[in-house]
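Weekend entry, working from home. Most of the wet-lab plans are on hold until the incubator is repaired, so I used the time to fold the two sequences that have been sitting in the queue since the last round of cloning. Logging both here for the record. First:
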Amino acid sequence: MENPCACLASIGVESEYDRAKELKAFDDTKAGVRGLVEFGVAKVPRMFIDPNERIIECCSTSPNARKDLMIPVIDIEGICETGEDAFARKEMINQVKHAAETWGFFQVVNHGIPVEIMDDVLEGARWFHEQPREERSKYYSRDKTKKVKYTSNFDLYKSPVANWRDTFFCAIAPEPPNPEEMPIAFRDVLMDYSKYVKKLGVALFGLLSEALGLDHNYLCEIGCSEGLFILCHYYPACPEPELTLGTSKHSDSNFITILLQDQIGGLQVLHQNQWINVPPLHGGLVINIGDLLQLISNDRFKSSEHRVLAAHVSPRTSVASFFNTYSQPSAMKYGPIKELVSEENPPLYRETTMQEYLEHYNEKGLDGTSALLHFKV
């Protein structure tokens, strides 16, 4: 078989670099970044290199980095059960409130999802990305209407630099895909995991509602928990991890994200102008506030920027569950919650539909700036 990545190397050394040609050559392989590794690429192609990103210098492993900062870990045992202890719940709410307002990130333990299910879905995600190129390429698409697809860099033709990452995407709720659309060896465990995530998401929105001083069901009643996308990310081992990123600096476009990561590490959150590692915690889940929750909370909650360093020795796998309503076109507008604004605390954002927000987010791509700025009053 002819090496489908050979032209990438030749483009990189041309006197007149043609980025558009390199992007198309990469996309046409339908093999993702994993395909580059499979064909033994020894140098990172130019399309992945951002000369403006100081990857090593601002890493939290730097000698000058703060070692006393760690994202909060919150025990939410009993969150999905009825009749939980009132004092314990109040403590949960206080911890979630503090984390959402100051970090925008926290990890949860004792969340009710069996560790075996979590391990199985990570193994399934890795299996999908490591199966033969001919098999995974059957799912490769940039069609926004597809509920199940495999791609590399959703913003490949929009962002200034490509990321060293591939993604398997599945729209789970409100309407799940047909089973025939999903890989047979992966669909059962993914759907099983999604049921637990959906239940946990509803419970977390209850805590977040109360942390804002609202009724327990408020955020769910305005649709925050209706839509669920699951993205299975795969970060192949990179030959030159100092030159590129697994995921560029960004904040998420949704209400909240529930992230399951393996034990490789690499996720970092920007806190107090410092990149802080989010260490893998077996059995734990990372929760982060998305842009739309920051918008409707009128900046009470923080949608923090984060990134993923390129893996070096071993590939990294993660499963990110995004709560939003993008798959269901709606005229419903989201703006700062009226109960949270006043004459002393006026709205900071204009109202927007989910579709308008995400179209702007996707058109902009991961360019290092916040999509929220476009909606500021």
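Second, folded right after the first finished:
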Amino acid sequence: MILKNPVKNFDFANFLSKMTAYFGDIGQFEQKIQQLAQVIGLDLSKYPIDHLAVRMNNVETAQQWRDFLLVDNSLLKESEVNGRPISLIKLVEPLIFCGQKVSIIELPFPKDKVYLEEGWEHIEIVIPFMENESVEQWGKRIELQFGLPQNTQICYKISQPKVLGERLPNPSIAITLKDATNRNNCCLKVHPYDITTIVCSENNF
């Protein structure tokens, strides 16, 4: 479901100030993501950053953050994944992150995991399937391209979340630093499709 919410005279500076109060300094988050990308030899300028994501430890905080984001922005999609809702919120004006314009923030409601830090948590980049490439072949290609199995500084996990209505395969590779140097608990995720393509593929779109 798409909810359109046109905004006139949007005060972007005020939005950024409030966003920092809720989620933390986006500049520090950017530095941590760049550090992680450097460890695996990934040039962020070569791949589209699809969206940014936040994390929190209780439902009250999630609802407060969701309400804040929806004051001036719009709900692109809300789905239930593994027993909890995940909201995708499209910003009326994009953020600049690692030199790219990013217009979507992912806000998953908490489940049972407790995060050391609430706020900005991961980004997702897009590395598309090659022609006739299977999910397994795509995963192996990403592993080899960035030398993930041999990199002793990182942990990574390959998964394929199942979301009701999604028609395209949407595997994910989540990469984190094994030793959270400089308190870097952030995550970089790789997908073959951007979220807008996934949403447009759904039966009920």
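Plan for Monday: verify the second prediction. The longest strand covers residues 84-97.
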